[in-house]
Amino acid sequence: MICLRKQAGAVVAVSSLLLVVASCRSQSESLTTSGSQSSDTIVSSTPPFQTKEPERYHAVRTITTVNAAGETLVTKTFVARDGELRRHESGKIVYLDVPEGKFVLLLGEKVYADLKDEIRINADDASEISPEGLLHEDVTNTSYQKLGAESISGRNTSKYRIVVNSSEAPNVSQSETMMWIDEALQMPVKSETKSADGARVTMELSEIKLEVDKDLFKVPKDYQKLTFSELRKRLTTP
User: Which region holds residue 154: left if phi is over 0, alpha if psi is between -120 and 50, else beta?
Assistant: First the structure.
């Protein structure tokens, strides 16, 4: 059984993929969606586009990771947001981030724990092989190429090719990301990243809805509260 610390960290790592460029500044010289400029390449330290996360939505995020050895891991996470309220659900574990606090729920067992300062979630593990690596401090040269419009699961998107050259000594490494940005929602709905060592990560959002049930962000009244240590034991016990 995987421990809670790893599960919660994975949840937030997955979430970071969606928000990879949510706070980026727009490039002063942007690409157009048609004409001769549609396939131009811009070399820049900031993306030539802006993205944002909808204030209210829910979706299923699928992450497929293939490491350098060819081993594949597929993770599906239900994500929901309503303003400052957030829910991440993967398997039997639910993570809630609400004004009242940060909580972990175990579905089926009807128990939960208040995280408070007992666990610190770190999403950095996925940064080097995810689109978030585009904003890494070691990046010295990033090129952005707009490839045009494409339909993904019936949604209209703009497709970009992003190549990152890292000057990390002693060798210069390169990674490439294909990113599809939903034209209506202005957020990435799919990305495919290939890193220098051959690892590949694909992220895709599906079942996107803009209406959210507020009960998703509440701890059910019939759930028993445990300490973090007690909840962790339930996860690690076979």
Answer: left
Which of these, 68, 69, 114, lies nearest to 224 by C-alpha position?
Answer: 114
In 3D, which of 144, 111, 138 has the Cα closest to residue 223? 111
- The per-residue pLDDT for range 82-99, each reduced to its tens digit, is 999 999 999 999 999 999
Q: Give ∠ CA 154-158-163 in degrees, rounded to 5.
A: 130
Does residue 170 have a cis peptide bond before it, meaning omega lies within 30 degrees of 0?
Answer: yes
Which two three-digit tokens encode residue 236?
């690690």
Between CA 237 and CA 128 the distance in angstroms is 32
**Dist. CA 36–CA 185, nearest whole Å:** 26
Q: What are phi and psi of 196, to 5 degrees?
A: -65, -30
Q: Which of 48-52, 101-105, 203-207, 215-219 shows the lowest mean pLDDT across its residues?
A: 48-52
pTM, two decimals, is 0.70
Q: How many CA atoms lie within 13 A of 185 on its CB side?
A: 24
- Residue 13 CA to residue 193 CA, distance in Å, equals 15
Residue (of 236, 194, 223) closest to 104 by Cα position: 223
